[in-house]
């Protein structure tokens, strides 16, 4: 397996693509929103009663706001939870033991590992800009030198690849695009591949999977530790995948999207394509009589503005133009 997590890059590319589609649709209806906003401001200044605006553009702006807000909230919540967890845990920081110091020197991790006094068996890599590894005294006591080396090699892989930052982005994108389950599945696959790549790194350096397997067995036999607040901590969900790969290196790990994620992704692509294909322009027309507005006409027309000009000329005549809906092909002005 190459040391490239394709799932992460697919997730990143998909997130950028969906973000571009949403931005393009929002930009498409912005003339309508701007025109309506200007008219309502004029009505407010003139003392007229404010009408409820047509909901299409407002709903789209609200939806995009919810998407962006959800992503930012998820990002901030993860950072805060990780900060609080580490602040409580690092209070128990102690100098590294002689055995651990020897392993760290061999792996060139002397300044990258923090030892905390805790009887539970755990180790994880954390930090975005300056990642580091946290190891418990319980883990150091329970493992042999070779097993400890295997665990630290696994964490070293996360450190080198900056996996905590990737996992943080993956969780943010899966929360932001909650309406597309494929992002959640891509994020889960990203985490699984991160673990498999880290195991592969350890095995390649030790030229043996025995020590990593025995270390995993000891960790699984110990009471489970809740490390949910740490973005890159390996949970029990991935132990089974890791053990299968360690027992049978020929086991292939493949992303298998669910039918729901495939259907929702297809529908999003279809609706997005159709929305972007529908030409939209907007303007409002006001008729003045005795210093008051008597009509409020909003048109959605083609981009060449020819339809807009024809509609402006024929405002006082019987309506010949049917406003285009965002998701329905436009019926242009004319005598048809």
TrEMBL record:
The keyword Membrane applies. This is M56 family peptidase. Residues 59-243 form the Peptidase M56 domain. InterPro entries: Beta-lactam_resp_regulator, Peptidase_M56. Keywords: Membrane, Transmembrane, Transmembrane helix. It comes from candidate division WWE3 bacterium. The chain crosses the membrane at residues 6-27, 59-80, 121-140.
